[in-house]
Input
Amino acid sequence: DIVMTQTPLSLSVTPGQPASISCKSSQSLLHSDGKTYLYWYLQKPGQPPQLLIYEVSNRFSGVPDRFSGSGSGTDFTLKISRVEAEDVGVYYCMQSIQLPPTFGQGTKVEIK
Amino acid sequence: QVQLVQSGAEVKKPGASVKVSCKASGYTFTSYYMHWVRQAPGQGLEWMGIINPSGGSTSYAQKFQGRVTMTRDTSTSTVYMELSSLRSEDTAVYYCARLTTTGGYGMDVWGQGTTVTVSS
Output
């Protein structure tokens, strides 16, 4: 199975300031079809995960443009340009290039 | 709009089985595979398996092989996940999540979750 490793595991951010989360995979997520299958999810307290970013850098429908994803191969980053109070929760990266899909440990983001 | 509505919370004794349902609406049920993912209290996300609602084929995580069964009812647009021989470590929130259309095995829409508590 592909191992996904996130850093940091927790983050305390002042509203309006940027935040960044790193995710590394144990194998390349670049598929022969040219796509890279790395997803980002946010799980707000008491809710199911919600899709933020698919295929490294594509925002899902309705996701604010303050969220952006980047990276390639095995190294990826999620950035929030200006953190808002509603962004609190746990962020997960996930590889979807092969079964089983595997998740990072999660990064808990809180507001200072 | 696309919605996945899951059945209500369950409390089971060790050794029993639980069957969780996930009713889909707002899209063509047979056109999208469905994942099942669980989350133990305070823990991360763990993939359990996937079912093709069209033909009923399944693929399960090795950890759950022999204990999990995923089925579907196309007449009601519902998928089911049954887990047997329950133990305390199976206490978790169980989610269904639709496979994305863009390729790979990602999930786009998730159900609200079903809490399963295993306790004597």
